[in-house]
Every structure is written in structure tokens, then in C-alpha cells.
């Protein structure tokens, strides 16, 4: 059954209590959550009941059905729509002025702002949720996301976002929930990874079935590594050191390099014993801290990390310094686990350290890397396929022979990209020079590059054919080089 | 009619680029040598410390 809730300026969610059991679905908490975090863009909610939520069912079959108190097996689902959409009753259909009472799937999908499942667990009832970041209060920045499908009144629709749910507190705690969110993103984004339900996550970390009380006692970071490994990723655990402030490459340079590569991070707050999924960041034009200081790394221009925190909400901005509204600052995230694909042998710390080192004394063809006094270094992973797509899109602005070689050079699936940009170039989304590093190179390979290029020429190293290092001088300098930004989406 | 060579016989795609000049091998090896004494040495030290730090985090309970 379906009912329509009109929403006006974040008011109207309270009518949910007329449609669902307020105790079973913890509706007062849900209404407060929606009023606090959903913005004015949402003008209507389609309430669907009953809805079979596979994630809740996985915990129902293995846990809630065994309890003395009766728990329903049925969930409810809320679908969020912007202004213009309504529910027509005879026949039952979504309608919108431009589309009438027979809207096309594409039209519904284009406006669809996401869904929220409500599970009948009385406390922490917000289950699997994917919300378009543009429908959330105080969201802005670069966010990892992907399309998540839903079926609504016969329409096949999709919303772009990152999975969120509140922790169950008993069968799954924050660490399970952060693992689930990251793994659900992976299974939707990459066909390589299988879907993992909430209850599966609580079992994968142990050699034996941890049923009973154990999941509520939490899991260790070692067990989180095991969960990520069990589904076919290769987790790398990084913890902040005490001397990082002075290091050429710091913990946060590594963190940002993985995040900017489109890898969501399992963020650890070791003092609190809490875990979140780190899914994005917010950039500033000026270096953070003392604004007049020159800072050489992209991290120094990040003002916030954006996290999916099961105790709060998706895309929550975490500032550098704790302010009134923020529950914590980003320096409390003192460790992370990044679930990497198999063929990533060169870690971010190497790519970033190499990039900083290379620019201090570059080959004479790229002497501007040493002479420019305000270059900022950015590192991220891309695939050769994405690199070739980028070259294709910018081919008319590049040297023709360079484009041919860039498309023909044999490279592995993953590449580290290093971009050097002055502060002015950063503000125009342009760069000074770019390096492609072999992500399959060993950590002690002194020159793991395939290509170094700027507007004047390119240094090529055909590693697959063991060719010597060769320099290509362009006939004339090419147009300003564009920044690559294809892993995260800007909101 | 001359037969084109097979693709697998062409070798490096860089052979087909105009205005390409080989970097003096001595200069290339000097660049590698410099990076060995700075970047590679630093990575060796960093890897040891990172491994010890990660081991400390592995037993933290998250709840």
C-alpha cells in the first residue's frame, strides 16, 4: 500500500505516525531525524508498506525471530520527491505536470531523491537508506557515490548516493555498519564484488559464527580487515604516527589520496572506539590554518571530511576544529582501512612522497616544477580506461601525437596520477604538469613513471616494452591543462 | 603492394611519434640514482614505522 505525504519547508514528516505503528518503527526519532537533515528540496514522501528489506530480513531470520518479544518481519520504505510530484489514486500512479499520470521511468528517475527503509526494531529503526546529497541539509563538497536502483509503483528508478543506516546496537554495531555501507557501495559500483547483507557482515569477521551476544560487543580492526578480505578486496590499514606533522608525506596526505581515488575509507576513531565510512571532502581555495602560508599538498586545502556516521547522518561534514554542531573533529579519525583492488602494489604514501621528491629536482625539461614557488601536489588513482576517456574528451586541446601515444601506450589497469598546480591554476581547475605512475610498481622502484607532461612536452617511459626514457617536444605549447576529476562528484 | 607489419611486431607505440628524442642514458640513470638516495631510502624507513603503527591499531575494539 502507498500513501503520499506532502512536505512543505521540512514540515509534514510528523504525519508518518498516522500511517505506521509509531512504537515499532520508532517514528518520533525518525521524524526528528528527517526534520533535522532533509532540506527544502523534498516536497513529498511516498510511504510504502509493507516492504521486504533484504538487509533487515537477514537480521530477522538470524536474530529478531529468536527473541521473546514479537518483532514484525515487515519493513516500510519512504521515497523522496521534489516539488511537482504527487500520487494519483485512480489508477494508482505517480504524476507530475509535465509527465501527466503516466510518467516515463527516466522522468521519475531524474527527479527521484532516494529512499529510506524503516525496520520494526523499536530503536534505531532507520535501515538501508540512499539519499541524493542534494536533498540533505549542509551538504557540499566532493562525494563518492553510485547509482542505487529502486522499484517504485512499477517504475525502475535510481538515485545517486552512498548507503547509510543506523546501527542495530545488538546484532550490528558501528564497525559492522560502516563495513556494510562500504561493501554495499562496492557491490553496486563494481560487478566484481558480491552483495553482503547486514547479518553476513557480522559473521565474516570471525572464524566461527559469532551469534548470540558477541556482535554487540564490537569487533576489532583486525576483524574488519578480515571482512573486507572475505569479499575479495585487499584491505590496507594505516594509522597516524606522532611525527606526521613534519613528514614529507603525512597520514592525511595518504588518506586524501585514497579518498580522491574513489575508495571509501573505513575511518577509525581509536580513542572513542568508533568507526565511520569516510566518503568525501570539502575543499577551500586557501590553505587551512594560517591562510597566508603556502602549503604544498592538496590536503592542506581540505576544510572538512564528509562521513557516513551511523550515529548521525550521511555526508556529515567533519571539520578540522570541533565547532558547536560537529560531534567531533577530523583529527579524531586517527586510522583508516582502505579496501583496495588486487593490482594496487604501490601505496599512496609512495606516490605522494615520490611526487614531492620529484618536484624538488626535476629533469631540465620540467624545471618549472622546482622554480614555481607555490605548486600544490595532488595524487589519486585512476584506471587506464578512465585515463584514455579523459584524453579522448580533451583531444582537441592536446598535441595530436601525444594523444595517439597516450591512447596506445600499454599500461596496467590502475595508475597513480600526480597533478602539480599553482594556487591560481587550482582555482581555475587547471594544472601545471601531470605524472602517471605505475600502480603495480614495487615500493622501492626509484622511477615508477610512465609519463610526465606539461604544456611544452612529454617525457615517455614505455615500461611494457623496456624502451628508454624519451622526450617529446611539442611543436607549440598546448592549451592550459585541465585537472582530472572523475572519481568523485561535486555537490 | 607492401604488406603492413603485424601489430605485435610494431613494438613500442612511441616509435611512431615525431620529435621524440632519447634522454641521455647517463642523465636518466643520474635521476634514478638521486631518487634512490632520497625517495627510496625514505620509503624503507617509513614502511617499518607504518607496519608497527598498523599492528597497534589491529587490536582496537570498535563498537
Mean pLDDT of chain B: 90
Kindly, what is the distance between the CA atoms of the first and last residues of chain A, rounded to a whole number of angstroms?
Answer: 34 Å
State the distance separating the first and last CA atoms of chain B. 74 Å
The oligomeric state is: heterodimer
Q: How much of the sequence of chain B is in beta strands?
A: 5-15%
* Rounded average pLDDT of chain A: 94
- State the share of residues found in helices of chain A, binned by percent: 10-25%
Largest binding interface between chains:
A-B, 58 and 41 residues
Notes on the structure:
The complex is a heterodimer of chains A (491) and B (63). Chain A has 491 residues and is of the alpha+beta class. Chain A is 22% helix and 28% strand. Chain A is built from 12 helices and 26 strands. Chain A has helices at residues 27-37, 54-62, 105-111, 174-189, 198-204, 221-230, 251-259, 348-360, 368-371, 384-393, 400-408, 423-427, and strands at 2-6, 44-51, 75-81, 86-89, 92-95, 114-118, 126-131, 142-143, 146-152, 155-161, 219-220, 234-239, 265-269, 274-283, 302-308, 316-319, 335-340, 376-383, 414-421, 430-431, 433-438, 449-453, 457-460, 470-473, 481-482, 489-490. In chain A, strands 8, 12, 13, 14, 15, 16, 17 and 26 form an 8-stranded antiparallel sheet that branches. The longest helix of chain A is centred in the middle third of the chain and has 16 residues, at 174-189. With 63 residues, chain B is mainly α. Helices cover 54% and strands 8% of the residues of chain B. Classes of the chains: A alpha+beta (491), B mainly alpha (63). The interface between A and B is large, with 58 and 41 residues. β11 (219-220) of chain A pairs antiparallel with β2 of chain B, so a sheet runs across the interface.
Short overview:
With 491 residues, chain A is an alpha+beta fold. Chain A is built from 12 helices and 26 strands.
Tag the structure with descriptive keywords.
heterodimer, A: 491 residues, alpha+beta, 3 domains, 8-stranded antiparallel beta sheet, 6-stranded antiparallel beta sheet, 22% helix, B: 63 residues, mainly alpha, 2 strands
